[in-house]
Design goal:
6 helices, about 100 residues
Length: about 100
């Protein structure tokens, strides 16, 4: 995507794209269409439906962000999870102490 479109995407952008893949894969209607039709027909339905899928995922991401800023327990839980990045940074740098 970067080379073809000059998108300058990084790893966090890849995660967003993978999130959209997961949202599409979770869509029951698209699952049915894929299993009952050819690729061309699936692509037509995907093209019609993808905006709704992405907008729904966007809303859910917004809800998570709101919870972070509004709910102290959610913020603490997320900070606890993200605290694991300390160990990951040190592992990548091969810091043994």
């Amino acid at each position: 995507m970067n080379e073809k479109n000059g998108a300058n995407l990084d790893e966090s952008d890849k995660i967003w794209i993978d999130q959209q893949w997961t949202a599409v894969m979770a869509d029951d209607d698209l699952n049915v269409v894929a299993n009952r039709n050819n690729r061309g027909q699936y692509d037509l339905v995907l093209t019609e439906k993808v905006q709704d899928v992405l907008l729904d995922r966007h809303e859910k991401n917004g809800e998570l962000a709101t919870q972070f800023f509004v709910k102290l327990d959610f913020r603490q839980m997320l900070l606890g999870y993200l605290g694991g990045t300390y160990d990951e940074f040190r592992k990548r740098a091969d810091v043994t102490q």
